[in-house]
Automatic annotation (TrEMBL):
InterPro entries: Put_ABC_export
TM region positions: 29-45, 77-94, 123-145, 157-181, 193-211, 223-241, 253-275, 347-367, 373-391, 423-445, 451-473, 485-508, 514-535
Keyword list, A-Z: Membrane, Transmembrane, Transmembrane helix
Name listed for the protein in its UniProt record: Putative ABC exporter
Coiled coil residues, start to end: none
Highest taxon of the lineage: Bacteria
Source species of the chain: Algoriphagus chordae
Length: 546
């Protein structure tokens, strides 16, 4: 107990020193003051609107049997938020099977780990102290969220406190669970079983959405019937936080306090298990602590950010299949690089996030929160992003390397295997995005193939703009001068005619699908010409190098 008291005294002294530093330079508080000013300004605007437009309470509509109709809008909003929380939980559990979590900094490693203090006491103190950043983040998030929803909900002191607990406890409990997972693997080598359990849990949760959706008259009416039901409040972590936050609707403090107590019991059990199985955990957390410190230094600009800075599996042990020989080596090379960048080489985290945003837009448009033009705008934004993804393709310099020239295969085969993985990734992303959006929002079915072809075309156009000057010109200044003229020519003779064709098709038909068809048809010729020029330049590459 004395050791924990000393650790607490150490943090108090650090806090006092930080306050003194702030007092010496109060300008450090300006960003925080700006955030608070913005939040209070939003409070003022929302409260003024609420006073001008007093909300009227509507009674639920009754059917012939006197049973209130289901509020599908509220059901799907609750279900959508729950799914986001479940997705974050599943991702955190899966990431726990990849690397350990650390509660320490390098200063703690250098001083505390060598001090005559019991490892259990250090771990107990720092694990409990980790609630402070979660609590601070929850306060800021709830203050901002309350400023946006103050005209809908009465933000009383009790509402504010329970919302803070709901968010803080959710993010706080994740780190001890991740630490326990890694600890159990260190002692019993059960990582594969835990990973399979996480995948099984994700599959079961997906079934809880798909099954009631298929059973309902319309899929969107039943997809969140189970997830948003009150019994799901007893689902670990996500449901508990939702049960605490539900105080806004039922205003029953006993229920919310009960879920807080469940969190407390769970944390106590997790802490006992960690202490039981962690042992001398110093070596396990050293690598994670050092990795966290390096990330902080990169954020502060002290270190150069490398290509793998945003990779999820940089040190992952890969067991890849044999893709074959010849030009397939280029596909294998890209596959290995992509495997180390994300949790799956064909469909990664960023693709999943963009697909989720598209599905959310489709669901909201279904309830007439806004028109389908928001979805169309999002699809056009995806085309814009993939155009610049093609221009920013980084490894085209490998085309001038001897290994590319000396591989015994045709130039067309080399080029195809070089872009094959990109095409597969784009295809999977487009299908995962556009099929649910079309089904949920009731869009025209022809948008599915048109969006797929348009995205591939626009990526190939950007890729051609990048690759042709890189491999056709030797001098760097020539590439810098030619590339802008090349982009201008493509915009003038490619994009503008295709865009004009799309506008005419939309004006005549009043439908987005025909506008997309016009743009896709026009960009097809641009992409075909650029790919033909690219292949022709590649064929001349060997003669130039020799």
């Amino acid at each position: 107990m004395n050791e924990i008291r000393l650790l607490f005294r150490k943090d108090i002294l650090i806090l006092i020193n930080n306050i003194k530093l702030i007092l010496r330079n109060p300008l450090r508080l300006l960003p925080y003051a700006g955030i608070l000013a913005y939040i209070f300004f939003m409070y003022y605007l929302r409260l003024r609107d609420r006073e001008e437009d007093a909300a009227t309470q509507e009674m639920p509509e009754l059917d012939l049997n006197g049973i209130p109709e289901v509020n599908f809008s509220m059901q799907n909003i609750i279900g959508g938020v729950t799914i986001l929380a479940l997705g974050l939980l599943i991702y955190q559990l899966y990431s726990a099977t990849k690397k350990n979590v650390s509660f320490f900094k390098m200063a703690d490693v250098n001083l505390l780990f060598t001090a005559p203090v019991k490892p259990e006491n250090i771990l107990i103190y720092y694990m409990g102290r980790s609630i402070l950043p979660s609590l601070g983040g929850a306060i800021i998030f709830v203050m901002y969220g309350a400023s946006q929803a103050i005209d809908t909900f009465e933000m009383t002191v009790a509402n504010f406190i329970f919302l803070i607990f709901a968010f803080a406890l959710f993010f706080f409990i994740i780190a001890p669970i991740k630490f326990l997972v890694y600890t159990l693997n260190t002692k019993y080598d059960v990582m594969e079983y835990i990973r399979m359990g996480v995948i099984a849990l994700a599959t079961a949760l997906a079934g809880m959405i798909i099954i009631p959706g298929l059973m309902a008259e319309k899929f969107w009416q039943g997809m969140f019937a189970w997830i948003s039901s009150p019994w799901f409040d007893f689902f670990p972590i996500v449901g508990w936080s939702r049960g605490i936050a539900s105080y806004l609707s039922h205003e029953n403090a006993i229920i919310s306090i009960g879920f807080i107590l469940i969190y407390g019991v769970s944390y106590f059990v997790i802490m006992k298990l960690v202490i039981r199985f962690a042992g001398y955990y110093y070596e396990d957390v050293l690598e994670a602590t050092k990795s966290n410190e390096e990330k902080l230094e990169k954020v502060k600009g002290k270190k150069q950010v490398g290509e793998s800075s945003y990779s999820l599996n940089t040190k992952k042990k890969l067991a890849l299949p044999d893709f074959g020989v010849g030009a397939k080596a280029f596909y294998w090379r890209n596959y290995v690089h992509s495997s180390r960048q994300d949790f799956h080489p064909l469909f990664g985290l960023y693709s999943l996030i963009m697909v989720a945003i598209g599905v959310v837009l489709a669901v909201l448009s279904l309830f007439e929160w806004f028109s389908h033009y928001f979805i169309y705008g999002y699809l056009l934004m995806m085309l814009f992003i993939y155009f610049f993804a093609g221009i920013g393709r980084a490894n085209v310099g490998d085309l001038k390397k001897p290994f590319f020239i000396l591989v015994p295969a045709s130039w067309a085969s080399k080029f195809w295997n070089m872009i094959k993985l990109d095409i597969l990734q784009i295809g999977l992303f487009c299908l995962a995005l556009i099929i649910p959006a079309v089904l949920i929002a009731g869009l025209n079915w022809y948008i599915i193939p048109l969006f797929l072809f348009a995205t591939i075309e626009i990526y190939l156009v950007g890729f051609g703009i990048n690759i042709i000057p890189q491999i056709a010109l030797d001098e760097g200044w020539d590439r810098k001068l030619i590339k802008p003229f090349m982009i201008g020519g493509i915009v003038l003779f490619g994009f503008i005619p295709a865009f004009a064709f799309s506008i005419v098709a939309f004006v005549v038909s009043k439908q987005f699908v025909w506008a997309l068809f016009g743009g896709t048809f026009g960009m097809f010729f641009v992409a075909a010409i650029l790919m033909h020029v690219t292949l022709d330049v590649l064929k001349r590459l060997e003669f130039k190098e020799v």
